[in-house]
Write a structure and sequence with these properties.
101 residues, alpha/beta, three-stranded parallel β-sheet, 5 helices, 3 strands, globular
Length: 101
């Protein structure tokens, strides 16, 4: 059985909060996704982890170079090892936390 343990959240400094805040995934276009990723100051390649209800986000982010989209229920170790950065939606995070209990 897996040994899963909680971890303390990383929070940005107040002056950097706007850089990591994002609009709801269900309204992000490919152009907005590209702008979000390019202004994020994180290294590529990037895995964007989305939840079951976020197919619009999957469509927007999948068109970006060196970005792959994975569903929370289907994420694999291979995808996580490939990535230099990970972007997780709140819906995906809730699904992961629910699956771990």
């Amino acid at each position: 059985m897996a040994d899963l343990r909680p971890f303390q959240a990383f929070r940005p400094r107040r002056d950097l909060a706007a850089k990591v805040a994002s609009p709801p995934y269900d309204v992000v276009s490919t152009k907005e996704a590209r702008a979000l990723v390019s202004g994020w100051d994180q290294q590529l390649p990037l895995v964007v982890l989305v939840g079951e209800e976020e197919s619009a986000a999957a469509l927007s982010f999948r068109n970006l170079e060196r970005v792959i989209v994975a569903w929370a229920e289907d994420i694999t170790v291979v995808e996580l090892l490939w990535a230099r950065s990970l972007l997780v939606s709140q819906v995906a995070l809730a699904e992961l936390q629910g699956g771990a209990s």
